[in-house]
Design a protein that fits this description.
The chain is α/β, with parallel strands linked by helices and about 260 residues long. The chain has a domain at about 1-75 and about 200-250: Rossmann fold (3-Layer(aba) Sandwich). Helices cover about 35% and strands about 25% of the residues. The protein has helices at about 45-50, 80, 100-110, 115-130, 145-160, 175-195, 205-210, 230-235, 235-245, 250-255; strands at about 5-15, 20-30, 35-40, 60-65, 70, 85-90, 165-170, 195-200, 215-220, 220-225. The longest helix is centred in the last third of the chain and has 18 residues, at about 175-195. The chain is globular, with a radius of gyration of 18 Å. The termini are far apart. The relative contact order is 0.16.
């Protein structure tokens, strides 16, 4: 086993209500890597993500996270293990009745209930600053743009300084310029915080911007696992066809604008 691996999935079998969605899925994510999980709709990307982050119990196989096997003997993975990872859910998944600051503080309050209020507020403001959203502490989610909601969700995902960050379709629903800004922010956070990331996406521009390696799923199995350029040159035809899809058109005017994350 690779001692530097932050995530190892070994012969995973997963599904719902007696239906098997994933069969014999294996992958290893190294420290500091951004691994992109991709494939056509219905291939099992979401099932893989939900199983790895502990929302669904595996039907078989093993998951090792941060050097420790994920243990389901108590009915769910240990809280201490889950604390070491963060999740950016699709759409941000903010609670509409709470301010941005209150949303971001939730993992801190759950995992560190004894932290003084002032310390929690300071930590939340630091994380909002890291995602270029410091001005939105007191705003409600419905006062934010789609890109701002994603970044608020990202601040919440990293507030406990996780070693592993999982992102579910981070660019979904965003225009190309805002999407690129979010991709660049993820790269900045990887560089500054040293976070290992697993990103589920079907957006070609994001795949090309973010990935160190890809894992391509089809019909519940891994059909390619490796570097993007290898997939394009030597991968199965289904993978080549997927990656050959036309990307969003490059908008020279939009790309040339000074992009301000605080407004998107």
């Amino acid at each position: 086993m690779d001692a530097t691996a932050k995530l190892r999935v070994d012969h995973l079998k997963a599904g719902y209500d007696g239906k098997v969605v994933l069969e014999d899925v294996s992958l290893t994510v190294a420290a500091g890597e951004i691994r992109v999980i991709l494939g056509a709709s219905g291939c099992g990307k979401s099932t893989l993500l939900k199983t790895v982050i502990g929302l669904e119990k595996p039907l078989g196989g093993e998951i090792e996270m941060l050097g420790t096997k994920v243990d389901w003997s108590e009915g769910r993975p240990p809280t201490a293990q889950l604390r070491r990872m963060g999740v950016l859910f699709q759409g941000g998944a903010l609670l509409s009745s709470l301010t941005v600051g209150e949303n971001v503080s939730l993992p801190l309050r759950i995992h560190n209930p004894g932290l003084p209020r002032a310390v929690v507020e300071d930590l939340v403001r630091v994380k909002l600053g890291q995602v270029k959203l410091g001005h939105a502490y007191a705003k409600l989610p419905n006062e934010l743009s789609g890109g701002m909601r994603k970044r608020a969700g990202l601040a919440r995902a990293i507030v406990n300084d996780p070693e592993l960050l999982f992102c579910d379709e981070p660019s979904a629903g965003l225009d190309p310029v805002t999407s690129r800004g979010l991709d660049d922010l993820l790269l900045e956070l990887r560089e500054s915080l040293g976070i290992t990331m697993v990103v589920v996406t079907h957006e070609l521009d994001s795949i090309r911007t973010l990935c160190d390696k890809i894992t391509f799923l089809a019909k519940g199995k891994v059909v390619f696992d490796g570097k993007l350029d290898d997939a394009e040159r030597n991968g199965p035809q289904a993978v080549k066809d997927f990656l050959a899809r036309k990307s969003a058109p490059e908008d020279g005017k939009a790309r040339s604008l000074a992009f301000n994350l605080e407004d998107a």
